Structures are given as structure tokens and as C-alpha cells.
């Protein structure tokens, strides 16, 4: 059983990851090696463990040891017994104390500090995805451009997992999918959908990465309202075997240069004078029409 440690000293350095370090500091915690992230809620932590992420410590209310966190603790115990991780501490405290430590009320009761992993480079991810789904006729990936709100990133990943997106690529200015809020909003699907960043700085987008996607036969579809936009149900669009769906930042949308370089500019038909949807909502519509419905129809015909 992991070590249960009741919290009596708020200043313990082991609690810095929960109480005092900001997301960018956690990201660079072990620099140059991958850092840490905080997973919140039993569901998110369980999916992270299932995906192979290693916990460093846990923080919870005492009642959760035999309650909401029982399954997580059992998985951790097995990892320890197998020698895959060292014995990790489980810090416990009443809810009011946890609220003081974390700065917010834990509505789902359990936090875990977990080790990040080295992200694959974009070309490696594309080749891996294509190899894994080689028997599948249609391949759909999403590219997020400068989506800075972690809640939107998380919601997009949840839609991507539910609606048959094979991988997600993010430009360097996007919010990190492993930030606490993004992972929580995603319901842990950030650990199920393959993803990576397209480069280390904004200057690397949209070139040369567009060339990388074209190298592997992907046509690009910019979700944007222009005079040249075609409807999301256009037959030419649905017939593409390999399609990259591009979604832009909140408010401004995709960069003009990005739109110019895309093979298609695509709009979602709307009523009542509404000219746009939140990027997370738009992703759900786009993923269903361009991925979920296409792949469902293909499977149904086999």
C-alpha cells in the first residue's frame, strides 16, 4: 500500500507542486527532462495511469482512501509491487485544509502529481498513426492553431476522442493539453488521443509543417468564414481519404496565411444571424461531420 501521510505542515516542499508552483514551473520541473503535471479527479488520474503515466505523489481527503480513490490506489500498489515506480507518498487532509493548500475547493477530491513524457516529433506521430490504422480507409487529424484557453483545448480533445479523430497537433502558442484544467475538462481523453506540438516556436508555423502534412498525403481544411468557404457537408471534402481539420484561436480564428495555404476553406451553415461558434463547439460539429459520420458510414458498409 502506498505511504499514507497526514498533512500537518503546509510548508513541506513535497506539497509545492500542489500549492505553490504554477503550470509553467511544473512543465520545466526536471528540465531538460520532461516535467510534471497535475491530474485532477479519479477519472482523469485513472486514464493517465492506464496510458502509462507515472505518479509522483497523490493528495486527497482521508475518506477517499477507501472511497473515490480506492481503484487508483490499487493501481499504484500494483505499479509499486512490479517495480515500475518507487513507493510514492499519499498526502491526506480534510477538505478545508486541501482547499487552503490548493487554493480552490476540490469538487472531485483527488489530485495526482505525475511525470510528463517526451512528446513525439510530428513526423513520428504521423507515421505511427498511419501504421496503426493502416487498414482504415479514412484518416482524420486535427490541427489547433493558437488555441490558448485550456478549457477549450480540453473540450476539443473530448470531442476528438468521441468522434474518431486519429491524432491532434497543436501549434506552439496553444495551451498545453496536460495543464490541469485542460486535462480535467477533457475527462482524461488527452491520455487517449495521440498528440504533439508542431514545433518549438511560433515562427515554425505554418511553414514548414504544412509541407510535412502534405508529404503524407493530407489535404487541409481550414474552418473559417470567407467568400470561398464551402459547406462542411460538401461531397469533395467528405471523399478525401486523408484530411487535416484546422481550428483557430478564440475570437480571431485562423491566421490569414494559414487559410491561404489550405486546400479547402470550410464553414458550418448556421441560422438566426449567428456567424460563428466557440472553437470547442465548432470542433464537435466538424469532427462529427468530417470524421465520425464518415467512418461510421464506412464501418457500416463493410
The largest sheet has its strands arranged as 8-7-6-11-9-12-10
What's the total number of strands? 12
Calculate the mean pLDDT score and round it: 89
Distance between the termini: 48 Å
The sequence of SSEs as H and E is: EHHEHEHEHEHEHEHEHEEHEHEH
Number of helices: 12
Proportion of strand residues: 15-25%
Radius of gyration (CA) equals 21 Å
Residues in helices, as a percent range: 25-40%
- The coarse silhouette is elongated
Low-confidence stretches: none
Structural class: alpha/beta
Biggest sheet record: 7 strands, parallel
Give a verbal description of the structure.
About 35% of the residues lie in helices and about 20% in strands. The protein is elongated. It starts with a strand and ends with a helix. It is α/β, with parallel strands linked by helices and about 300 residues long. Strands 8-7-6-11-9-12-10 form a 7-stranded parallel β-sheet, with helices on both faces. A 5-stranded mixed β-sheet has the order 1-4-3-5-2. The protein contains 12 helices and 12 strands. Helix 3 (about 40-50) packs parallel to helix 4 (about 70-80) and helix 7 runs parallel beside helix 12. It has helices spanning about 15-20, 25, 40-50, 70-80, 95-100, 120-130, 150-160, 180-185, 210-215, 235-240, 255-260, 280-300; strands at about 5, 35-40, 55-60, 90, 110-115, 140-145, 165-170, 195, 220-225, 230, 240-245, 265.
Amino acid at each position: 500500500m502506498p505511504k499514507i501521510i497526514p498533512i500537518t505542515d503546509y510548508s513541506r516542499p513535497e506539497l509545492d507542486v500542489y500549492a505553490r508552483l504554477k503550470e509553467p514551473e511544473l512543465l520545466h520541473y526536471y528540465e531538460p527532462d520532461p516535467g510534471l503535471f497535475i491530474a485532477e479527479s479519479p477519472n482523469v488520474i485513472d486514464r493517465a495511469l492506464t496510458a502509462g503515466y507515472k505518479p509522483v505523489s497523490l493528495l486527497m481527503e482521508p475518506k477517499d482512501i477507501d472511497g473515490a480513490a480506492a481503484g487508483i490506489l490499487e493501481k499504484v500498489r500494483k505499479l509499486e509491487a512490479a517495480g515500475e515506480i518507487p513507493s510514492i507518498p499519499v498526502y491526506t487532509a480534510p477538505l478545508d485544509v486541501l482547499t487552503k493548500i490548493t487554493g480552490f475547493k476540490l469538487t472531485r477530491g483527488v489530485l495526482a502529481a505525475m511525470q510528463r513524457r517526451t512528446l513525439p516529433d510530428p513526423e513520428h506521430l504521423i507515421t505511427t498513426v498511419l501504421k496503426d490504422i493502416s487498414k482504415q480507409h479514412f484518416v482524420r487529424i486535427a490541427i489547433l492553431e493558437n488555441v490558448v484557453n485550456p478549457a477549450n483545448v480540453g473540450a476539443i480533445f473530448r470531442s476528438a476522442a468521441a468522434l474518431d479523430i486519429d491524432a491532434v497537433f497543436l501549434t506552439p502558442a496553444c495551451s498545453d493539453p496536460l495543464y490541469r484544467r485542460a486535462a480535467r475538462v477533457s475527462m482524461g481523453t488527452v491520455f487517449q488521443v495521440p498528440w504533439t506540438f508542431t514545433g518549438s516556436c511560433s515562427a515554425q508555423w505554418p511553414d514548414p509543417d504544412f509541407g510535412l502534412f502534405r508529404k503524407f498525403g493530407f489535404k487541409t481544411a481550414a474552418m473559417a468564414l470567407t467568400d470561398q468557404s464551402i459547406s462542411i457537408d460538401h461531397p469533395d471534402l467528405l471523399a478525401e481519404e486523408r484530411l487535416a481539420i484546422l481550428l483557430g484561436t478564440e475570437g480571431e480564428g485562423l491566421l490569414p496565411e494559414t487559410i491561404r495555404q489550405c486546400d479547402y476553406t470550410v464553414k458550418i451553415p448556421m441560422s438566426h444571424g449567428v456567424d460563428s461558434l466557440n472553437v470547442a463547439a465548432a470542433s464537435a460539429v466538424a469532427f462529427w461531420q468530417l470524421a465520425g459520420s464518415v467512418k461510421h458510414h464506412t464501418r457500416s458498409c463493410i
